Amino acid sequence: MHFISIRIPSASAELHTIAGGLGAKSWVDFQSRQIAFIRRIRGVVIVVVVVVVIVIIIVIIVERRVIVVVIIFRRAVGVAAAVV
């Protein structure tokens, strides 16, 4: 009869295994890779936010122009209707 032993690894041992799996040579190397990854993600997030803000500003400007064109068109139609 085989006994099933359940071993609960400590968090640090688990992280060391993860670090090894990611190709890190040591725990410090893993941390530096993690920091570099977080910085890269932060850079991507900043770029995405800036692009979204620029797109929103462009949309607002275009919509304002559309609204102005619609107002002018309505006035023109109103004047034409009054003349006819």
Q: Keywords for this structure?
A:
about 80 residues; mainly alpha
- The end-to-end span amounts to 102 Å
SS element count, helices: 2
Domains, number: 1
- Globally, the shape reads rod-shaped
Record field, number of beta strands: 0
Helix content: over 70%
What does this structure look like?
By secondary structure, the protein is an all-alpha fold. The protein has one domain (11-83). Helix content is 81%, strand content 0%. It has helices spanning 11-21, 27-83. α1 (11-21) packs across α2 (27-83). The model has no long low-confidence stretch (mean pLDDT 74).
Task: Describe the secondary structure blueprint for this structure.
Elements: H1 11-21, H2 27-83
Q: What's a quick, concise take on this entry?
A:
The protein has one domain (11-83).
